[in-house]
Amino acid sequence: MTVRVRIAPSPTGYFHVGVGRTALYNWLYARRHGGVFIVRSDDTDAERSTQGYQDDILEHLRWLGLDWDEGVEVGGPHEPYRQSLRLGRYHEVADAFLAAGQAYPCFCTPGELDERRKAAMAEGRPPGYDGRCRQIPPAGAAARREAGEAASVRFAVPRPGATDFTDAVRGEMHIGHDHVDDFVILRSDGSPTYQLASSVDDVDFGITHVIRGEDLLSSTPKHILITGAMGGDPITYAHLSLLMGPDGRKLSKRHGDTALRAYRERGIIPEAMVNYLALLGWSPGEDETVVPLGDMIERFDLGDVSRNPAVFDPAKLEWMNGVYLRALEADDFVARALPLVEADVGRALDDDELGRLAFVAPLVQERAKLLTEIAPQVRFLFVDEVSYDEAAWDKVMGAEGVDGVLAAAIDALSAVPEWDTASIETALRGMLEARELSARKGLQPLRVAISGSSISPPLFESMEALGRTRTLARLAGCAARL
RNA sequence: GCCCCCAUCGUCCAGCGGCCUAGGACGCCGGCCUUUCAAGCCGGUAACACGGGUUCGAAUCCCGUUGGGGGCGCCA
Questions:
Q1: Nucleotides of B under 7 A from a protein CB
Q2: Distance in Å, residue A212 CA to nucleotide B14 C1'
Q3: In sequence order, which ranges of A101-169 are alpha helices (DSSP H)?
């Protein structure tokens, strides 16, 4: 049987890193088994769903490289893949349940329910629905509905009873129906709840494995009950532990960023994000940390998924990003940096500038952890006037004898026959020797002078990239500014 | 309150009865390298929550305690 898995995000917020991880595990499982990965939009919450969030989700799924075989925007044999377009189908299923006595109308109002829930809590009873309307004879219920009385539809959970299933990551599960209330499948306004819509879709779309967050573990009996009532094939469930913030609480906005978009904007590249997310709860078995995507696909197994909650650690993510950044081909690195550099400079670079960027790029590549660190380090190459970092200026330019160093550097560099790194180095080292200065003391003012910062790519190469005229002008301008 | 899940270094993971004086990675600390910042290299720090069993032998199996997480919605 072909493996069919899905990710079904609800477009009620930006694409969350936790959803990203769940999507990744589903995708890996599908690719590992030659299965089908489906993207469905669980947009039954009309109030909170927006097109903007929907776009953000698909954009980031693509950004991560998680291509889907069926679903939203790409289509497939089970179109449409948006729940808001399948409302009729949910009613069909609910009506069938009603007719078969597997569901019943409930006339309790949200207010009453709320009151009873609070009372039950206060008395220490389970706060779930008490099943009151299940006693109403079908004929009477039908009459009341025809008379126009508002009613939701609840699933009649078999009592006594229990649901048993084997979770692919957690093992044998047994949940007594005492702890599963008669849940609503259709709201009184006729809209389907998540429980109904999601389960119906899983059956209709032929989903074989549901890999999702642990927060849905407790409601799995409901989904199994619906699947069974529909006569659908049993589905294998796999519940992933949740992602935590640094304080051990569920990862939320309080801990910083939960939106994948934020990490992307910070300069994380998708390869690193995928690798980091993959290892946040899954282990290839060996003591490996950097695992190429191909290996992941080959080795991914639900049995190797960790059951413990995992703390999302941005520091490790950034370290890993550095690893991937350094592993990039030189031109690939430039290609990824270019948009950020151009945005930083505020215009497109011309051919000459592109050449200069390509020249220094490998030097910044070996020291960058984030894509966003690049532009500030190469900016000095593309602006007419550098803005000096105040702290760097004060610290370096305030030192004794800086004016002499600048003058000597200008002299030495003016005399350089060929403007290349080696000649520049020779000239400057000669200057250092003549003035009996350490490289640390004698070069740092030059760095600040040409780059505006005490942090820059290596000096000699930077000067070559800048060009003789600009370098000299910047040194002179700096001397005048002292 | 009730139900479910989980429990190895600060963090992520390895370990699935003897190979464990518990391994790797991030972080942190120290050193080397060095024209800045990084990167790199070397070294160090640091954990089997607790208590009972089972067994010749438990990080590994069972029970309990404690702790953490999730759920108990006409949200998804």
A1: 1-8, 10-16, 23-27, 34-40, 68-76
A2: 24
A3: 110-122, 138-146
Q: Provide CB contacts within 8 A for A253, sequence distance 6+.
A: none
Residue written as token pair 């380090």: A377
* Spatial contact of A464 and A424, defined as CB atoms under 8 Å apart: yes
pLDDT of A259 higher than 80: yes
Side chain identity, residue A160: P
Q: A373 in helix, strand or coil?
A: helix
Residue type, A289: T
- How many CB atoms sit inside 10 A of residue A93's CB? 23
A330-481 belongs to CATH 3.30.420.10: no
Q: Tell me: the pLDDT tens digits for A310-347?
A: 999 999 999 999 999 999 999 999 999 999 999 999 99
Task: Answer yes or no: is pLDDT of A255 > 70.
Answer: no
Backbone Cα Rg of chain A = 31
C1'-nearest nucleotide to the CA of A173: B4
How confident is residue A254, by pLDDT bands cut at 50, 70 and 90? low
Res. A481 pLDDT band, cuts 50 70 90:
confident
Q: What is the pLDDT of residue A1?
A: 85
Res A275: pLDDT: 97
Q: Which residue's alpha carbon is at the shortest distance from the C1' of B16?
A: A304
Residue A411 is encoded by which pair of tokens?
């002299």
Give the CA-to-C1' distance from A287 to B57 in angstroms.
Answer: 27
A392: nt with nearest C1' to CA: B36
Catalytic residues of A: 253
Domain boundaries, chain A: 86-240, 253-327, 330-481
**pLDDT value at residue A47:** 82
With CA of A459 and C1' of each nucleotide, the nearest comes out as: B35
* Fold observed for domain A86-240: Rossmann fold (3.40.50)
Task: Considering the domain delimited by A253-327, tell me its CATH architecture.
Answer: Orthogonal Bundle (1.10)
